[in-house]
Amino acid sequence: YCGRFWALSCDPGFYLVGEPVLQCQNRGEWSHPLPSCERVSCGPPRPLENGLFEGADFHAGSSVVYQCHPGFYLLGDTKTHCSNSGKWGGHPPACLDVDECALGSDCDDHASCQNTDGSYTCTCIHPYSGDGKNCTEPVKCPNPGSPEFGHRDFSNFLMGSEVVFGCDNGYELVGSSRLNCLESGAWDSPVPYCRALSCPAPA
């Protein structure tokens, strides 16, 4: 009826755009243009460090799902909903680093595991070598022993190492005094020995 006032409102999840109260005037027209109802928007949720969210509808009643990048795990709610009040519900989740070294990595038994942000690294422990996930035992030469009536210095028989021989007083070394361990796993010279010194025949 003309002269009466009408109060308009929107359903939950929508907000009114325009004048909420209209009056029917004598000319049979409303005092203001009819308002419209627009969906309430929460806007994009905050970015998730080391993760992402799936969902492109940020209006009331919609939801987005969070997930973390490989090497991280999600702490908090995996899904959040846009409320009718225009705010995302729940507590924002976080992506925390997974400690692969503590959980059990695929590093070799002869390698050390170092946790990094979102990943980990494997490093072969000396003298083993490789990529950390496959470490090979170093080449080693056989124990050359110590010559009778003599001695040997150094006890490292790995490839590239050197041992030195010497004799006691009254003996001389026959052969090389230094042996080097080759890549083939053999010494570069025969193992020397000590021979007693002899005096020249009396004139």
UniProtKB/TrEMBL annotation:
InterPro entries xrefs: EGF, EGF-like_Ca-bd_dom, EGF-type_Asp/Asn_hydroxyl_site, EGF_Ca-bd_CS, NOTCH1_EGF-like, SEZ6_CSMD_C4BPB_Regulators, Sushi/SCR/CCP_sf, Sushi_SCR_CCP_dom
Disulfide bonds listed in the record: C10-C37, C68-C95, C167-C194
Compartments where found: Membrane
Domain EGF-like: 97-136
Organism: Nothobranchius pienaari
Superkingdom, taxonomy of origin: Eukaryota
Keyword Membrane attached: yes
Entries under Gene3D superfamilies matching the protein: Complement Module, domain 1, Laminin
Identification of the protein by name: Sushi, von Willebrand factor type A, EGF and pentraxin domain containing 1
